[in-house]
Every structure is written in C-alpha cells, then in structure tokens.
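All the exercises in this workshop are built on plain-text protein records. A record pairs a protein's sequence with a compact description of its fold. The structure tokens are whole numbers drawn from a learned vocabulary of backbone shapes. Once this layout is familiar, the rest of the handout is easier to follow. An example says more than a description, so a record of this kind follows.
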Amino acid sequence: MRIHLPTITQFAALSAFNITNALFQLLLIPYLVAYAGGEKLGIYFVVLSFTLLGSIVINFGTSQTSVIDLRKATSDHEKKAIITSSLQTRVLPFITVLLINIALGLFTNKGTYFLCGILILVSELINPQFYLVAHYKMNSYALTNFIFKTVALIFLYQIRESSDLIELTLFTIGLIGILQNIFFVPYQLTIKPLFNMRAIILSFKSTFKSNGLIVGNGLTAQLQQALFLFVLPMFATPIFLSAYGFVDKLISSFRLIINAYSTAIIPHASSIHSIGLVTWKALKKWQNTLLAGISIIAGLVMFYFPKELLSLLLLGKTKEVQFIQEAATLIKLTSPVPLLIALNLFNVAEMILEKRFQMYFTASILTLSATIVYIFSSYLGLLTIHPGYYLGYIELVCLLIYTMAIKKIRNEKKL
C-alpha cells in the first residue's frame, strides 16, 4: 500500500492546528482566573459557546462538502465558482447570527461581552480552511495560527491588569482570527459576488438541500453541551458558572484528543469495516479496550487528585479559593466522562461508515431532548442532584442511544 505523503502532512498540520487552539484556551484560563476573577470567567465561556454555535451556522457545512467539490473540480473556472458559492452560502447565516448577537448585546445585562465576540463570527465568514484542506495547504495555515496565538497570549499577558480583560480577550480572539484568515483567502475570490444578494440567496437555497442535515448534526451535538451552560446562570452562582465552564473546556480538550485519534484511525477502520462484521467487531473490541484503559486512568486522576490537577492546569494560580473548590468538586463528579466519551467513539464511527446519516441526526435529536428534559427538571426543582452530574448524565444517555442505534442497524442488515 502506497503512503500518500500530502495526506500524512495535512493530518499532522490539522492536528497541530487543533492542539494549538486547545492549548491557547487552556493557557488563557489561569490568567483570566487570576486577574479577571472567577465570577467573570463564566460569561466568557458562555460567549465562547455562543460564538461556536454561531460559527457552525455560518459555516453551514461548507468546510465538509466544499472540500469534496473542490477535489472533484477539473478547471480553475470551476474551482472559482465553488469557492465563490461556498462563501456566498455563508452570508445569510452570518447576517442571522449577527442580528441575534447584536440583540443579546443590546438587551441582556452582559451584552458588552457578546458585542466583543462579533469579530469571532466575522472570522468564520471568511474561514478559508475548506480551500486549504482541498489543496493540501494546511501547513502554512497551522504555522500562522501558532504564531498569531502566541502573539495574542503575549499581548493579553501584557494587559492582564486591565479591568476589561474578558472583553479584550474576546475581541483579540476575533481579531487574530480575521487577520489570519485574510492572509489565506483564496486568490480566485473577488469581493463583488459577496454583495450580490440574488446570487447569495440562490447559493444558500442550493446548499441548504445538501448541507442542512450536516448543520443540524453539528448544532444538536454542540447544543447538548452549550444549552446547559446557557441556562446555568438561572440556578447557579457566577462562581459555579465559571467553574463549570472551565471543566467543560477541560472535557472538550479530552474530546478533541479522542476525535484526533478517530481521524487518524478512520482510514484503517474503513477498510476493516468493508471486510465484514466479524473483523469490524474484533477491531472495535480491541480499540474500545485500549481507549477504556486510557480513559479509566484519566478518570482516576480526576477523581483522586482534582486539586493537584487544577494546580497543574492553572499553573499554580490557585488564589481564588471558592473557584478552586467548585472546580475540584466538578472534576471529581465528571471523572467517568472520559470513559463514556471513549466507549461511544466507535459507535459514531460505525454509523458514519454505514452512511446512516438520518439515524445519526435522529440520535442527536434524542440526546438533545434528554438535555432539555434535564434542564426543565432542574429549573422546576424536580431534580435536586448536584448540577455537576450533567456532563456524566448526557454522555451516558448519548452512549445508550448510539448503542441501541447500532443494534438496530445490525438487525436491519440481517433481514
């Protein structure tokens, strides 16, 4: 079997890009805790979650489908049309998300923070990753991302004493995103088509048919985590909100590592899956055992050494006593979560390999429904358990739903 070097280098670049982004957020947190205070940190995580949801809507699946279209294109003219259409598709979703963001900025008591996050949404509008991935040009983008993130960390450290540190951090994240993306906007693109409203509407209508399900999957998956964070201020203190946001980010970093592993093994898993169910089950059993072992170790560290883990992650900046206490409790309560995430990895992979995208979307909707039930039960006082159990609850529900979905797929294949 021949090794395709561009694919390997691109995977390395994508991994470096994702790891840089995860480390950037984790390295920011110690300074935000130390200088902005634990209470303000919560709204920072809420705004970040909103901009992530907004980015999924704005991107509208173009990062996935446009890569395939560009790889199939046979002429520069065709490539230019695909690039233009992809960016035109994003305009209407961007306007919608922008209006919602402005409304939150004007009509909520923490509106300034949402307004400072607008540039993050603008950076997604001109995100060129679909073009770079299709043409195996992620290396320079990943390197530039590392440089910009490093400069941003240095700048934010220099202004760490500012009373507006959270606002400036959100603004800076958006600004570096825009500057970075401008450098890599495809040379074939001209700005004029992005103001052609008729072409924008036609591009969106055309893309909606093919990408609607992709956007739905992305939104429902993200809402399972973000929705609880959005409503948490209704029945939790600002300090608890900050601690929860921090632990949620920690779990997200673990999920990022698991997803990177999934990306690496999918080509091999795909070939094994095509051989037959027996070989696939053997691979899945072996991989689940491996991932379970690693996850159990991570969970034991979280359960028995939460304060030591916090001290390490926060670079020893543990003066916010109440924040540390809340975060340590949450880390202990969420210790089973890495195992639950790991055990579900190959359920999702199998569903995708079977091309059961409608069932994938249905499973996501059911999981989101479980989130809504939990939130309403908590808000109405029907649930008296610690809110920190939510992450474990939703991952367990997710595992059960996807396991049942896989059994249904296999049973249907037997008929």
The mean pLDDT is 85.
